[in-house]
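Before a colleague's protein record goes any further, I have to sign it off. Alongside the sequence sits a line of tokens, each denoting a local backbone shape. I want your independent view on whether this chain really folds as the tokens say. Where you disagree with what is written, explain briefly why. This is what I was given:
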Amino acid sequence: MKIYNSLSREKETFLPIEDGKVKIYSCGPTVYDYFHIGNARAFLLPDIIKRYLEYKGYEVLHVMNFTDIDDKMISRANEEGISIEKLADRFIKAFFDDIENLNIKKADIYPKATDHISDMINMIKELVDGGFAYESDGDVYFRVDKFTEYGKLSNRKLEDLIAGARVEVNDKKENPLDFVLWKESKEGEPSWDSPWGLGRPGWHIECSVMSTRYLGTKFDIHTGGVDLTFPHHENEIAQSEACCSHQVVNYWMHNGYINIDGEKMSKSLGNFFTTREILDKYQPEVVRFFLISKHYRSPINFSDKELDDAAKSLMKLQNIYQKLNSLADKYIVDGELRGDQLLKIIKEKETKLIEAMDDDFNTALAIGSLHELAKELNRFINSDNFELTQEVKVVLEEGRKLLELFGKDILGILVEQQEKDNELVEPLIELLLEFRNKVRSKKEYELADEIRDKLDELGIEVKDSPQGVEWSYK
């Protein structure tokens, strides 16, 4: 199994630090707004990694942080006239709702920055004591030129960064590239007491603290969007390794951008769509399929056409999966295409699926192999001269299990019909009651009562009130 390591800029054989166990840290959201579809790709990557590693037999510990204190949070809370805690609670709940809709399994631990301020102060103390950081008029900065490997993740040289830097003039810094670890508090801002006075942590320090706090000073995989490579992850490496005196992360994995008209989607550019907006228009499994239809390191172009194409492509897989689930006892072939031939094809596709995922989690190749499998299963099912035999029943079950394993359990894109039906029930009830209201407005009360009675037979109670129609499950 190979993983592309952003640090070495090449594929490396995956060797976990501890046999049978994998530790993963992912940069999570700043909880001041709904996350956009570009963020969703970053949250989906560790979900795919964890699902596949668990299939391979690993015990996986996954940690993802919440940034619940920064300039954006303070600004948004002030705009709304609410506390930062209340703002964070709202958007943390929204985050969980949105990842559940995308079938992203929860991480094992979700630490919040504000719960680890004392840990951050302790790490900053260590950096100051080691000469890697310095206090300047209430602020604390990391001394970049003290860390000789600075730039190794983003492949940038310190002298080039200094020459090309467009950094605000700041007389507090020794070097324009030095980055803040602790900020002196401003009037009206949340603050914590520290050896340097009242203040709050900088952004980068939180991930160094929370990753090593929950995963130890040596762990396997760190994920995030490619936009975080510099400066966030570069600074994280500098902080963590300066404190620990050794490499902390073995494999750095970065997912590519989502583009709109050739430009990266981002809130700063204003060309973004929240995941919620897109889920109002497209089924969650279609959005998930779209996000993994390209290799995670490749950019994806976002458009309605791309999502429509994803829906059509997914439907082909969904149809054969549902057909196998509902009709497996009925379709048996006797003649030219025998079950043993199909079984051989199924085993070949299983090998291709594993090879695709072993090759840096190549979901695009895996989806291609699922489509090849679906084509062969459809050809088998639609052959002439069906005859019920035990051999074919066994073979079809092998095909169904393989589709379920990779399509549902690992890639998370296939949905059983019962789940689909549950998603459709409430919208259909609302549609039927809207039609009933129109019937009543035309004084066709007999038909309206018939609709109500039929719904009652199905276990759905309808009540007419002065406030409107109410319904509930009996």
About this structure: Confidence is low (pLDDT under 50) at residues 331-337. Residues 417-441 form the longest helix (25 residues). The chain has 15 helices and 15 strands.
